[in-house]
Amino acid sequence: MRTCNRVSPGVILLLWASLAFATSDSPSEQKQSQIEQPHVTALRRELGLSPHLLLEWLPGSNSVDTLRVTDNFNRAEIGSDWGYDPRYWRIVDGELWQTPEAMYEWRYLAVFKPVFNEPGRTIHSVSYRWGKNADALGIREGAHALMIDDPSENGSGYWLWHRNNWNQVWLWIIKYGTWEYYSRQGKSVDQQPANADPQAGDVVTAYIRNEPDAVYFDYYVNDQWDATLQDPSKEFPKDNTWYAGVFIHGEQLNNQVDDFTITWTQSDAVPPANITDLAAIDSSSNAVTLQWTMTGDNGNDGNARNLEIRYSTSPIASYEFTLATLAVDLPEPAASGQKQSFTITGLQAGTHYYFAMRVFDEAGNGSEMSNLAEATTTGQSVAQRLALLSGCDQSGRVGETLALPLVVRVTDQDSLPFKGKSVQFAVTSGEADFEDSREVTVTTDANGLASANLTLGTQPQNIKVEIRASGLAGSPIACAATALPGFPAEVAIVSGNEQRVSVNNAADPLVVKVADRYQNLLANQPVTFRVFSGRGGFENGGSLTTQKQILSDNLGLASVTLIASDVYGDTMKIAVKPDSALSSAVQDTFTVVTAVPHLIQIAGGNEQSAAIGTTLPQPLAVQLWDAEGEPLKNYPVVFKIVGEEGRLANGLKSISVSTSNEGFAQTMWTLGTTAGLQQVAAEAHFGNQALVNSPLTFTATAVSGGVSALLSQMTLVSGSVLPADSQTAAIISLRLLDDFGNIISGKEVEIQVSGQSNFIIQPESPTDSEGLATAELRS
After folding, report:
1. Tens-place pLDDT, residues 353-402
2. What Rg do the C-alpha atoms of the chain give, in angstroms?
3. 144 in the same domain as 102
4. Do 638 and 693 have their domain in common?
5. Do residues 633 and 693 both lie within one domain?
6. Environment class of 523 (CB within 10 Å of its CB; exposed 0-12, middle 13-18, buried 19+)
7. Do residues 621 and 563 share a domain?
8. What are the pLDDT digits (tens) for 561-605?
C-alpha cells in the first residue's frame, strides 16, 4: 500500500521561516547591511564559505536552530563553490545561466559543495528561485538535484521537477550527470498530480525526509504544497553524505536560476550574550528598581526565553551566583536590544544590596553573569495615602463585569508603593457586586496596588461604590459606574400579525417589543423589518422598499406600516430583527394576507325591455368586493349571452371587462331578433372558485317591431265575388308580422275602403296572439 504523507505539523512550523524568506526580496538585499554575529562568523570559517555566500542562523523556540546558506549569484564568476563543467555554465545579470554550448537535453548538473548532508548535519530543504525571464517551457525543463553522491558534474542521485505540460511533479534518477539510466532510456521513480503552477520569480522548494520506509520529497511552490513523491526502494543516498544542486535541460531554454538555498537544523548550543549595563535606578524602604539592555537567544540574535536576577547583602562572584537570593515574579525577557526594568520588593529597609543577572535560551544555554549593580534601601515604610488609579466612571451592560477593574494604590511617606495594606471596596447604591458580595477586602501587592472587578446587576441604573483604607489620606474614594441595558435578546410581536388587508392598502402597524435578556425594554435600538415572501413593501420616498430600519421608542416598541401587495390572496411574511442582537435567533415573523375577491352583485341594467334587434338604453352593470368589503379594482368580469339571441358591446357573444376603481364593470346589450325574454350571464372567479353570487343573470324583454307591409297578410275569407245587396258581408282576415316575421299581437287595426256605397265594420278587438284580426265589408 502506497504511503504519501506530507511534512508533519511539527516540521511545518520549523520550515515556515524558510518559505517566508524564499518568497521575499533577495536575502543579500535583506541582510547585507547587518553585522554578522560572532557565532555566525565562526560557522562561516568552519564551513569555508566564500564571502559572497549569505549565511543565516535563525534561533528556534524548540531548542533547535535553523541555518541556511544562499548563493544569489550576484558576481561575475561562478567560482569554486560549485562542482560543474565551466563549458556549460555562466552567471548573467545575477542569475545562473547555461552557455550556448549546452546543446543537448538533460546532461547538465551543477552541485553546491560547501554545505552537504553528513553525520551531525541534516539537510531538510533545498530551494531556488526561477529567473526573471523564465518561461513555461524552461520551467518544465529545470529540476532540483538531490542526494547527489559526488560534488561534481558527474554525480548520481535524484532529480525532482514540475512538469507543467503534464500538470505533474516527477522524480527520476540522475546517473553520472545525465538523464540516461540505461542507453537512451531514463528511469522514472514517481509521478504525482501537481497542485501549483510555478512562474518566473517563484521559489520552488524540496523538503527531504529520509524515513525507514522510503525517501520522501515534499515539493512546494512559494508557500503552496504542490506534490509529495517517494522512492520506497531508497536507491539514494548510498550513505549519509550527499549533496544538492540543480539539473537543467540544455538547448538554450529560459530556465535561469537565482537564490539557490540549502537549509539545515542543529541543536541550539549558542548561549545568549551577557548583560553588561545592569544598573539600580531607584530605591525605596523595601524595593530597588533595576534596568538593563536585553540580549538575545544566540548572542544578541533572536529572543531569550527567561532570565534570573539574584541579590545579596554581600558582593556576588560568578561561581556564587546560584547561592544568592532569586528574585520572584520576574518578567518575560524583552526583545533583544530593548531597555527593560524590574522592581525587586520585600527588601529590608536601610540595607545595602548587590544585584546580578543571567539570561537563558529555550535550550537552557545561559549567558555569563552580568556586571554587579548596587543600591541601598531607605528607612522604614509607613502607609500614608490612598489614590485612585483607574476604573471609575465606567459603563457596561447589565449582568456583565466592567471591562476594567477598580484599581487604587497605597503609598508610604516617600510616595513609594506600600505592600500589605487592606483596602475595602463596597457597593453603596444600586445593584452590583464584587465576586457575589457587595463588599470585598483586598490587600495591596508589592506595587502598592489593590484591585477589584465590579459586576453589574440586571437593571439599568447608576451604581455608587466607596473604596476605603482606614487611617489613610484620600480615603474614602467615591466611585461611580453606569449599568446600561443589554444587547437585544428578545423581540416579541405586540400587534399587527395575522392581518387580512385589501390589495395596495396600508395594513395596521406591525409592532414589536425589544428587550434584553433581563426583560429590560430597549430604546433607540435599530430594528429591521424585511419582507422576505410576497410582494408587499414599506413606503420610502414615494416608492416601496422591501426593507426598512426603525428605531425603538422609549417603551422599547418599534412600529412600521406595511403597504399590502397588489396581488389578491398574496401571503406576505415579514422578518423583524434587532440589528445589534448578538444572535441571529433573536427575530420573529409577521404574516399579512391580502383579501381575496369575494362578492359580485348587479348594479344596474336588469329587466329592461326594447324592440327586438335594438340596444338596451342602460348598460348591464355589476359591482365586485373583496373579503374586507373593499371594491375590487381592475378585476375581470365576463359577460356572456345565454342562448343564441343578442350581442354584447364587442359584437360577440362574450366579453371580459375589468372593474373600475369603484369595483364597477359594465357592457351594452343589443337584443336578438326574437321577441320575448332574453338573458345575459355575468361571472367572476378567483382561481377556480366562483365569487359569491357568480354567475349573475340579467334579463330583458324583446318587443316586436313595426308592421311589415311586406310580410303582413290580408285575406278575403268568404270568397272573391259577392252580391252588392248591402246585406251580404265579405269577411276580411288580417295577419300582422314585423320585418323579422315575428307575430304582432295586441295591435289596433283600422281598414279603409274605396268606392261608392261601400262600408266596413272594423275589427272589434286588437290582433290576437296569432297576430289576427277580422273585419266585414258590405256594398
Report:
1. 999 999 998 878 889 999 999 998 887 778 999 999 999 999 999 999 99
2. 54
3. yes
4. yes
5. yes
6. middle
7. no
8. 999 999 999 999 999 999 999 999 999 999 999 999 999 999 999
